[in-house]
From TrEMBL:
It is found in: Cytoplasm, Cytosol; Cytoplasmic vesicle, Autophagosome; Endoplasmic reticulum; Mitochondrion. This is Cysteine protease. Cysteine protease that plays a key role in autophagy by mediating both proteolytic activation and delipidation of ATG8 family proteins. It holds the Pfam family ATG4_LIR. One of its GO terms (biological process) is piecemeal microautophagy of the nucleus. It is an enzyme of class 3 (hydrolase). It catalyses: [protein]-C-terminal L-amino acid-glycyl-phosphatidylethanolamide + H2O = [protein]-C-terminal L-amino acid-glycine + a 1,2-diacyl-sn-glycero-3-phosphoethanolamine; [protein]-C-terminal L-amino acid-glycyl-phosphatidylserine + H2O = [protein]-C-terminal L-amino acid-glycine + a 1,2-diacyl-sn-glycero-3-phospho-L-serine. PANTHER family: CYSTEINE PROTEASE ATG4, CYSTEINE PROTEASE ATG4B. GO terms for molecular function: cysteine-type endopeptidase activity; protein-phosphatidylethanolamide deconjugating activity. Belongs to the peptidase C54 family. It comes from Echeneis naucrates.
Length: 389
């Protein structure tokens, strides 16, 4: 490992921790090991009752989706400074998080749930996913996780709309507006008084996933510096993406190399113990993380961010706007206050694009003729520049 600084998405005491190699080697390994590591598994119950019992060869992006969401749940319930220790009794919240990903049909974010929900996105069980599809699936599954009560928002068309996110994370704003009308009719704010506690929460924790395309067949080097800056944001969850034949969960960088967790290891499925504990050693990567040159990255990625409070989201917006003023790299996405009139509703988007005119983008992932997804027609035509970051 060279003496370049390694940047990881660790937030302690409201400050980003930047590790220096050699001096803090143990801290680096502890950070990596503490992240949930989801890999291929075999011998789990058949998906859908009669489907595959292993995801080897097709589930790598699904596992990467599990990892980025798993990091969000750790931040949500345990905090960014939480550390896993082998052979130690684990906190109850940690066990609950791990149980949400166990390979069985009734776990919130299991391979079973992701694969079956993906059918609605046009992906048959056993077919390779792109980053956009897995983001859309996680958004739908999070609705059923009443314990975490996350808002998973997928920002489409390379645009993050602040007004839209605040409406999702603070639904009481809309309900309170309706309640005020009721109050005018009945002489009191009956509607507001009747709101359930969960509806009056000041802010529902936000998982923001931004599918992006940073070039055509290869990543445009003009985006590299901006991508690095994303890892340095304290709200960062990392990036899911990959290269031909592989999908990875990227958690940081050193110099011109990305640091990532690799799902391409097949392990036996795990069954929880009778006391509810989970044999968890195989869910933590206990060796140094993998590295790859950033130029090898496929241009289709999804960047993730977690904002537990409104203040954290406001801080993220401020940091993004500062980055947009910096020189030295192209902006990756646009941050706007309200939805531009030209934007198409997410519900109207076709999330399974036609690649008939995009042969040069062809990729082969895990022996599947499945390309990373193009997020808009203008990108398919080769218009790589995305307005503002």
């Amino acid at each position: 490992m060279n003496e370049a600084t390694i940047h990881f998405t660790l937030w302690m005491c409201q400050m980003l921790v930047i590790y220096a190699p050699f001096v803090e080697k143990d801290d680096i390994l502890s950070d990596v090991t503490s992240r949930l590591w989801f890999t291929y598994r075999k011998n789990f119950p058949p998906i859908g009752g009669t489907g595959p019992t292993s995801d080897t060869g097709w589930g790598c992006m699904l596992r990467c989706g599990q990892m980025i969401l798993g990091e969000a749940l750790v931040c949500r319930h345990l905090g960014r400074d939480w550390r896993w220790a082998k052979d130690h009794k684990q906190r109850e919240e940690y066990i609950s998080i791990l149980n949400a990903f166990i390979d069985k049909k009734d776990s919130y974010y299991s391979i079973h749930q992701i694969a079956q929900m993906g059918v609605g996105e046009g992906k048959p069980i056993g077919q390779w996913y792109g980053p956009n599809t897995v983001a859309q699936v996680l958004k739908k599954l999070a609705v059923f996780d009443t314990w975490s009560r996350l808002v998973v928002h997928v920002a489409m068309d390379n645009t993050v709309v602040i007004e839209e996110i605040k409406r999702l994370c603070m639904p009481w704003l809309d309900v309170a507006g309706e309640a005020e009308v009721v109050g005018e009719l009945n002489g009191c704010l009956e509607g507001a008084c009747a709101l359930a506690e969960e509806e009056t929460a000041l802010w529902k924790p936000l998982v923001l996933l931004i599918p992006l395309r940073l070039g055509l067949s290869d990543i445009n080097e003009a985006y590299i510096e901006t991508l690095k800056q994303c890892f340095m944001l304290p709200q960062s969850l990392g990036v899911i993406g990959g290269k031909p034949n592989s999908a990875h969960y990227f958690i940081g960088y050193v110099g011109e190399e990305l640091i990532y967790l690799d799902p391409h290891t097949t392990q036996p499925a795990v069954e929880p113990c009778e006391d509810g504990q989970v044999p968890d050693e195989t869910y933590h990567c206990q060796h140094p993380p993998c590295r790859m040159h950033i130029c090898e990255l496929d241009p289709s990625i999804a960047a993730g961010f977690f904002c537990k409070t409104e203040d954290e989201f406001d801080d993220w917006c401020m940091r993004i706007r500062r980055l947009s003023c910096k020189r030295g790299g192209l902006p990756m996405f646009e941050l706007v206050d309200s939805q531009p009139s030209h934007m198409v509703s997410v519900d109207a988007l076709n999330l399974t694009p036609d690649f008939s005119d995009s042969d040069r983008l062809e990729r082969f992932f895990d022996s599947e003729d499945e390309e990373f997804e193009i997020l808009s027609l203008r990108e398919a035509r080769g218009e790589e520049h995305l307005e503002t970051f």
